[in-house]
Every structure is written in structure tokens, then in C-alpha cells.
Write a structure and sequence with these properties.
This protein starts with 13 loop residues before the first helix and ends with a helix. It is α+β, with helices and mostly antiparallel strands. The strands form three sheets. The protein has an eight-stranded mixed beta sheet with strand order 1-5-6-11-10-9-7-8, sandwiched between helices. A five-stranded mixed beta sheet has the order 13-12-14-15-16, sandwiched between helices. A three-stranded antiparallel beta sheet has the order 2-4-3, covered by helices on one side. It has two domains: about 15-170 and about 225-315, 2-Layer Sandwich (BirA Bifunctional Protein, domain 2), CATH 3.30.930; about 325-415, Rossmann fold, CATH 3.40.50.800. It has helices spanning about 15-35, 45-55, 60-65, 85-90, 135-150, 170-180, 190-195, 210-215, 225-240, 285-290, 305-315, 335-350, 360-370, 380-385, 410-415; strands at about 35-40, 45, 65-70, 75-80, 100-110, 120-130, 155-160, 245-250, 260-270, 280, 295-305, 325-330, 355, 375-380, 390-395, 400-405. It binds zinc ion (2 copies). One zinc ion binds next to helix 7.
Length: about 425
């Protein structure tokens, strides 16, 4: 039996990993600049954490979670998103408020795999817990735009909307029910279920048959209460201060139940409207729903896989470092022992160094140095050892010179560093 990877998962191989590492490095820098601190939560949690917070009527809870029983019969779920675990950790560890937290890592949803969509996917996210200021919403949006622009994306569209709250959402849900009641027979089976459980979720439906009715459905913007309207207006003002362009999409509601007031999505023209690169919003009731005191919060999650796809489609070349600094080629037993020690000393100088661990011909060692993208090759043979010298060859120019063994580390550090 040949074991293969599970459908919807993939191996991120060494030839791609530099890109990932670069994106994660820039993300960490920007998140820290914005005052966020990293938090790592478990990959699995008790199932009710997700079913209660994301909502029973959402696609995620209804059909996309990896839920299983452990050996004691407890129902556990691989995390399908990052916000609920962070709220759980915030409450359980009594973190100080306001808490500005960020995370990077894998998440799990049973979805149909397609370009930029995997069953194990990666997200970068940030949450500000304990601030009801619309400036926090704008800060979260600004942080996301800063990151995407820093990575080189240009064709970005920021869509913004008010998602309503406990006070005004019931009126809007009623309006949706009235509207869809007569069309119920034409809707897909999922939407019939959504109609009963939470008509808001009909707006997430991707099926063509439902889409034409959704396009004509009442917009939430006409049902927002005064506080929701005021929040949206303030967020817009803060975005204007930062000169961040946005469009208001009156039908934008995010596919999770916990969003309140602000909802936003960032898409790229290259990937199309169905494939948001980043999305988020306020969730002012979630912390209370999960057993904590009433605490406002706002957050964003960015899909790393889609981000990489957008970068590829826009033809952005990331400035990733390739190759190594030095390859040490040695000939003969004595030289190879000496070389082994030298490699270690060079590595201690924070250089990327590789050396031959087997006695291959000089030709094949040089071929390997080339393949590894070495900037310099240090050649150590019996003859050189006797003269206490080694040959240093610059690969780009082919120039070579002899240097004293006791000067090697200093000389190479100077050249490469
Ligand atoms: Zn409201
Ligand atoms: Zn539908």
C-alpha cells in the first residue's frame, strides 16, 4: 500500500517555502509595528466552542467541520477559524484588556478543493479585544492593507458594510423572510434550511439559482439602527484620514453569525469577488456569548494560500533570499577533517555554509556548489593544507585567490557579511 496525502492537503516543499517564510516574516513585522502580540492556540478545541460562536446555520458548522470523538468520547473539532479559539484563550487566561493578539497557522474545513482553497489552509489573523472605538476597526483594516501593499499587491478592492447588531438584525431577518417566503420553492435545499435557522445566511449562497434572488433581496443598510449607522460612518472617517479607499457593499454580510456592525472584505481583481484575500469585522457579542463579560472586539483573517495565488497572478516577485554563502570543497581525508571544523566556525559567524561530507571529486563538488547557489567556494586540498592556505573562488566572476588558513573566517565574513 502506497500512502498518499489526504485530498485537500499539500506539502509545502523547500522550493516554495522561502516565499512562505518571507510573507510570514513581513506579516510579523507589520503586526508587531501595529502593537499586536502573537498568541498560539491548540489546533483542536471542544466542538461547542465553534458551533455556538460561528452559528449552527453557517456552512462551516453545518457541513465543513472536522469533528471527531476522542478516546474518552468527547466531541472535538479541528479549528475551522481563529477568532473563537482566541476569545476562549482570552477569557480562560484572563488576559488584560484591551488585548491586541495575532496568529499564524493552519485551519481545517471540509470544502471542495480548488485554486487557493484547501481543506488544510493557512491564515494570518489579528484581533483587538476590548475596544469599541471605530478607530480600532480602521486600524485592523489599515494593518491588512499595509501588509498586502508591502508584499506588492496593487489591484485591491476594500468593501465595507454595516452588519447590524442584536437590536437591528431581527428586523432585517424579518424583512429577508418576507422577501424569500414566496421564493422558497425556487431556493436550493441549503437555503431552505437557512431560511428556517437564520435567513441572513441565504446571502452567502453561491448557487446560481439563489444568486438571482439574492441580488434583489433587501439590503441590510436600510435596517441599521442609529448606533450601527454611526459606527459605519466613523469607520469611514478614520479610513479617509488614512486615505484608504473603500466601496460600500450594502449586501456584504460575512458568513459567520458572530459579526456585528462592521463587516469588510478585501478582494483582488485577479482572484475575483468570490475569493476574498482577507475579511473581518466586529464581533461585539461573541465574548459575552462565550461566557465572558460584555466586551467589544474587532478582527481580521487573511488567507495565506489566496494571498500567494494573488501574488502569482499579479506577477509579483518577492525578494526572497536564495542560495548559500559558502560551499567548502575538500580533497583527501586530512583536508575533509579540517574542512569539517572550518564549516562549523563559518556557521558560527552566521553564514550559510555547506560542505562536502563525502569524498567526491572536485568536479562533482563544484557542480553541487553551483546547484546550491553558493556565492563562494572554498577549496581545501592536501597541497593547500601543507602550505596552510586555501583557495577562495568567487562563483559569479570565476576569480580565485589563495588565503591563509588562519585568516579564512575573517576574510569570508568580511566579503559575505
Ligand atoms: Zn444595530
Ligand atoms: Zn441557495
Amino acid at each position: 500500500m502506497k500512502v498518499r496525502k489526504v485530498r485537500g492537503t499539500r506539502d509545502i516543499l523547500p522550493d516554495k517555502i522561502r516565499k512562505w517564510q518571507y510573507i510570514e516574516k513581513i506579516a510579523r513585522e507589520i503586526l508587531e509595528n501595529f502593537g499586536f502580540q502573537e498568541i498560539r492556540t491548540p489546533l483542536f478545541e471542544e466542538t461547542p466552542l465553534f458551533s455556538r460562536s460561528i452559528g449552527e446555520a453557517t456552512d462551516i458548522v453545518a457541513k465543513e467541520m472536522y469533528t471527531f470523538k476522542d478516546r474518552k468520547g468527547r466531541s472535538l473539532t479541528l479549528r475551522p477559524e481563529g477568532t473563537a479559539p482566541i476569545v476562549r484563550a482570552y477569557l480562560e487566561n484572563r488576559l488584560p484588556t484591551p488585548a491586541k493578539l495575532y496568529y499564524l497557522g493552519p485551519f481545517y474545513r471540509y470544502e471542495r478543493p480548488q485554486a487557493g482553497r484547501y481543506r488544510e489552509f493557512y491564515q494570518i489573523g489579528a484581533e483587538t479585544i476590548g475596544s469599541d472605538s471605530p478607530a480600532s476597526d480602521a486600524e485592523i483594516i489599515s494593518l491588512t492593507m499595509t501588509l498586502l501593499k508591502k508584499l506588492g499587491l496593487k489591484d485591491l478592492i476594500l468593501q465595507l458594510n454595516g452588519a447590524g447588531c442584536r437590536k437591528c438584525q431581527p428586523d432585517y431577518k424579518e424583512a429577508l423572510k418576507n422577501y424569500f417566503r414566496k421564493k422558497l420553492n425556487s431556493l436550493c435545499d441549503d437555503c431552505k434550511r437557512r431560511y428556517r435557522k437564520n435567513p441572513l445566511r441565504i446571502l452567502d449562497c453561491k448557487s446560481k439559482g439563489c444568486q438571482k434572488y439574492i441580488a434583489q433581496a433587501p439590503a441590510i443598510s436600510n435596517y441599521l439602527c442609529e448606533k450601527c449607522k454611526a459606527t459605519l460612518e466613523e469607520v469611514k472617517k478614520y479610513l479617509d484620514i488614512l486615505k484608504i479607499e473603500y466601496t460600500i457593499n450594502p449586501r456584504l454580510v460575512r458568513g459567520l453569525d458572530y459579526y456585528t456592525r462592521t463587516a469588510f472584505e478585501i478582494t483582488s481583481r485577479e482572484l475575483g469577488a468570490q475569493n476574498a484575500i482577507a475579511a473581518g469585522g466586529r464581533y461585539d457579542d461573541l465574548i459575552e456569548d462565550l461566557g465572558g463579560p460584555s466586551t467589544p472586539a474587532v478582527g481580521v483573517a487573511l488567507g495565506t494560500d489566496r494571498l500567494i495565488l494573488a501574488l502569482e497572478r499579479e506577477g509579483v516577485r518577492l525578494p526572497v533570499e536564495e542560495g548559500i554563502d559558502v560551499y567548502l570543497a575538500s580533497l583527501g581525508t586530512r583536508a575533509s577533517k579540517k574542512g569539517f571544523a572550518l564549516v562549523q566556525r563559518l556557521r558560527e559567524k552566521n553564514l550559510k555554509v555547506e560542505g562536502s561530507l563525502s569524498s567526491k571529486s572536485l568536479k562533482s563538488q563544484l557542480r553541487l556548489a553551483n546547484k546550491l547557489g553558493a556565492r563562494y567556494v572554498l577549496i581545501l586540498g592536501e597541497e593547500e593544507l601543507t602550505k596552510k592556505k586555501a583557495i577562495l573562488k568567487e562563483m559569479a566572476t570565476g576569480k580565485q585567490k589563495k588565503i591563509l588558513l588562519n585568516k579564512i573566517v575573517e576574510e569570508i565574513s568580511r566579503k559575505v557579511g
